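> forwarded from #structure-qc
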C-alpha cells in the first residue's frame, strides 16, 4: 500500500524539524496535495530543470531537494518565469516538491554528518551548536488553599510551565513560611506587629526568559500577599547535538596532502574539484566540516582548535587573512579544504532517503539523483607555481 504525501513529509519533518530553519529560510512543502498517494520519491540537492525532468520521467510523485526553489518572497509563479515554469511542470505531472534546507543543516544527523561520514570522520559534536531557548525557573511560596490554584493558573497563562508538548508543568512541596508585618503593612494573613507562621506551598515552574516580566507581573496580580516571596533563577542551557557543522576525528593522522585526496575521493567529482591551503605535510587528525557555504563558521573552526576545516565557498580574503594569522608563532590555525558547494551537500540526499526508507518501508521507493547540478561545469587545468617572481 502506498503512503500519502503527508506521511512522507511528516517523516522528513521529524528528522529535520522546520523549527531548526533560519528565520530567512523557506522550507517545507512547495507544491503538492498532502492527500496524494506517493509510491516513489526522488532526492536531489537542487530543484532545477534536470532534476524535475528526472523526477517526472521516473514517475516520482515527490521531489525532495535541499535547496529551496522559492527562497525569496514572490508575487506570482507564472509559467513565463523560470521558477514558475518548474512549479507548473511539477503540478501538471502530479509531482510534489519539498525542501529541507537550513533545518537539515542543523539537524542531528544532518547535512554535515553526511559530509563527515563521506570523508571517514567519527563525529564528536556540532561546530556551532544550535541556539536553545533560554529558560528561567520561578519559585514562589503560596499559602495553602485556593490561592495555589489561582497562582498556578496565572503563571501558566503568562507562559510558565511549558515543556515540549506539555503545559502547566510544576513541582510543589509543603513547608512553613514566616513573616512579621511592620507598621504600614496591610497583610492578607495576620496583623501588624505579630510574628506569623503560615503553612505554605513552594511552587516551581520553568519559563522562557523572554516571558520573565509577564510571568512576574501575573504572579504579583494573582498572589494574595501584599509582598509575595519568590525567586527567579536563570537556568544553564542544556547541551545540544544539533547545530551547524560538525567536529570529528580520523582513525589516524595523515598529511594534509593525503587528507585532501581523501576528501576528493569521498565526494562526487566536480569541475571545481578539491583545493587545500596549508602545509602539505601538516598532520591532520581532528577536523571540522560544514556542508554548503561555511565561510561564516571559519571563526568557530579556529576556536575549536581543529587541524583542518572542510567546507565550500571560502572567499579569498578571509582565507588569506586566516593563513596570515596562522603564521604567527604559537597561533596555529586550521588548514583549509575548499570543495564545491553541491558536492558538500550531495551526501545528505542518501541520508534523507534512508530516513524515509526506514520509516515507510516498502510502501515508498526512494532514489537519489546522481545528476551533477553544480553550476560550474568547465575546468581548465592549471599549472601552479610556474609564474615565478618578477626579476628585480
Amino acid at each position: 500500500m502506498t503512503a500519502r504525501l503527508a506521511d512522507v513529509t511528516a517523516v522528513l519533518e521529524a528528522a529535520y524539524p522546520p523549527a531548526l530553519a533560519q528565520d530567512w529560510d523557506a522550507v517545507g512543502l512547495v507544491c503538492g496535495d498532502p492527500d496524494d498517494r506517493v509510491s516513489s520519491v526522488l532526492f536531489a540537492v537542487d530543484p532545477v530543470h534536470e532534476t524535475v525532468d528526472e523526477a517526472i520521467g521516473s514517475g516520482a510523485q515527490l521531489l525532495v531537494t535541499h535547496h529551496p526553489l522559492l527562497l525569496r518572497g514572490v508575487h506570482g509563479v507564472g509559467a513565463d518565469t523560470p521558477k514558475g515554469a518548474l512549479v507548473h511542470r511539477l503540478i501538471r505531472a502530479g509531482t510534489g516538491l519539498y525542501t529541507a534546507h537550513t533545518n537539515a543543516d542543523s539537524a542531528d544527523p544532518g547535512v554535515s554528518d553526511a559530509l563527515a561520514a563521506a570523508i571517514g570522520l567519527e563525529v564528536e559534536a556540532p561546530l556551532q551548536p544550535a541556539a536553545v531557548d533560554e529558560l528561567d525557573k520561578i519559585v514562589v511560596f503560596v499559602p495553602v488553599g485556593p490561592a495555589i490554584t489561582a497562582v498556578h493558573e496565572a503563571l501558566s497563562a503568562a507562559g510558565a510551565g511549558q515543556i515540549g508538548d506539555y503545559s502547566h508543568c510544576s513541582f510543589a512541596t509543603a513547608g512553613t513560611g514566616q513573616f512579621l508585618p511592620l507598621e504600614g503593612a496591610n497583610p492578607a494573613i495576620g496583623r501588624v506587629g505579630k510574628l506569623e507562621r503560615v503553612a505554605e506551598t513552594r511552587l516551581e515552574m520553568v519559563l522562557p526568559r523572554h516571558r520573565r516580566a509577564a510571568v512576574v507581573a501575573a504572579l504579583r496580580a494573582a498572589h494574595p500577599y501584599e509582598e509575595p516571596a519568590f525567586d527567579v533563577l536563570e537556568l544553564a542551557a542544556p547541551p545540544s547535538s544539533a547545530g551547524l557543522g560538525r567536529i570529528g576525528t580520523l582513525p589516524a593522522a595523515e598529511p594534509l596532502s593525503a587528507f585532501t585526496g581523501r576528501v576528493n575521493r569521498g565526494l562526487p567529482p566536480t569541475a571545481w574539484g578539491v583545493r587545500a591551503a596549508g602545509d602539505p605535510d601538516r598532520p591532520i587528525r581532528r577536523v571540522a566540516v560544514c556542508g554548503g557555504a561555511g565561510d561564516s563558521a571559519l571563526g568557530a573552526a579556529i576556536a575549536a582548535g581543529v587541524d583542518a576545516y572542510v567546507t565550500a565557498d571560502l572567499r579569498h580574503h578571509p582565507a588569506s587573512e586566516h593563513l596570515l594569522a596562522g603564521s604567527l608563532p604559537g597561533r596555529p590555525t586550521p588548514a583549509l579544504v575548499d570543495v564545491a558547494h553541491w558536492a558538500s551537500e550531495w551526501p545528505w540526499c542518501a541520508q534523507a532517503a534512508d530516513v524515509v526508507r526506514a520509516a515507510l518501508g516498502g510502501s515508498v521507493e526512494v532514489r537519489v539523483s546522481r545528476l551533477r547540478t553544480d553550476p560550474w561545469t568547465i575546468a581548465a587545468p592549471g599549472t601552479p607555481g610556474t609564474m615565478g617572481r618578477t626579476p628585480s
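QC bot note: Residues 347-360 form the longest helix (14 residues). Residues 219 and 299 are 43 Å apart (CA to CA).
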